[in-house]
Design brief:
Number of strands: 7
Organism: Paenibacillus wenxiniae
Shape: elongated
Largest sheet: 5 strands, mixed
Keywords: GTP-binding, Hydrolase, Metal-binding, Nucleotide-binding, One-carbon metabolism, Zinc
Structural class: alpha+beta
Bound molecules: guanosine-5'-triphosphate, zinc ion
GO molecular function: GTP cyclohydrolase I activity
Enzyme class: hydrolase
CATH superfamily of the largest domain: GTP cyclohydrolase I, C-terminal domain/NADPH-dependent 7-cyano-7-deazaguanine reductase, N-terminal domain
InterPro entries: GTP-CH-I_C/QueF, GTP-CH-I_N, GTP_CycHdrlase_I, GTP_CycHdrlase_I_CS, GTP_CycHdrlase_I_dom
Length: about 180
């Protein structure tokens, strides 16, 4: 069964009339939206980075912060969203800045948990750049904790994934946190 037919079934399962005017095109719209929200599955990482990794000798920290993202909680299929802060220490290679944000979309536009999202972003960047170190922080709110379940409106989840020299150097960690400003 394709996505559109599945949505029609969901609408009917809750007792709604899938043929009424307001809902007639809803399965099509919802399928299109869900396709977009999970489009990360269809992207190729090599293509994403292709042509935008440059040789450069800087050994100083690079930070791209406040990258907003939307993802889907894999337990409830409800959105979680927030900001991602990424820092790395180059080791002969740097990456086009937009690709850092594309990497966040790549792993957030799918069914996720926040911890895995954080790790996948960090590990992939480390791998592609052969970086000396990578540190990623994600701050997010989960609708599954807000509009249902425990119904906490203010709680925020912070996750972190540190690799390479960030695991060994307190100074680097401090610099990253200070520049990110959280
Ligand atoms: N660690 C982690 N947990 C998540 C994430 N997103 C949602 N969850 C949690 O996944 C858990 C699923 O627990 P279950 O007890 O199986 O589901 P539930 O009965 O709907 O749980 P409640 O939300 O407590 O009502 C819940 O505690 C959610 O808060 C995430 O990104 N990371
Ligand atoms: Zn959830």
């Amino acid at each position: 069964m394709d996505l559109e037919a599945s949505y029609k079934k969901i609408i009917e399962s809750i007792g709604e009339d899938s043929e009424r005017e307001g809902l007639i095109k809803t399965p099509y719209r919802a399928a299109k939206a869900f396709d977009f929200l999970t489009s990360g599955y269809n992207e190729d990482l090599d293509e994403l980075f292709n042509g935008a990794i440059f040789n450069e000798n800087s050994k100083n920290i690079v930070i791209v912060k406040n990258i907003e993202f939307y993802s889907l909680c894999e337990h409830h299929l409800l959105p979680f969203w927030g900001t991602c802060h990424i820092g790395y220490i180059p080791n002969g290679k740097i990456v086009g800045l937009s690709k850092v944000a594309r990497l966040v979309n790549h792993f957030s536009r799918r069914l996720q948990v926040q911890e895995r999202l954080t790790d996948q972003i960090a590990k992939t960047l480390e791998e592609y750049l052969d970086a000396q170190g990578v540190s990623v922080i994600i701050q997010a709110k989960h609708l599954c904790m807000m509009m249902r379940g425990i119904e906490k409106q203010q709680s925020e989840t912070i996750t972190r994934s540190t690799h390479g020299c960030f695991n060994e150097s307190e100074k680097m960690n401090d610099e990253f946190l200070k520049l990110v400003g959280i």
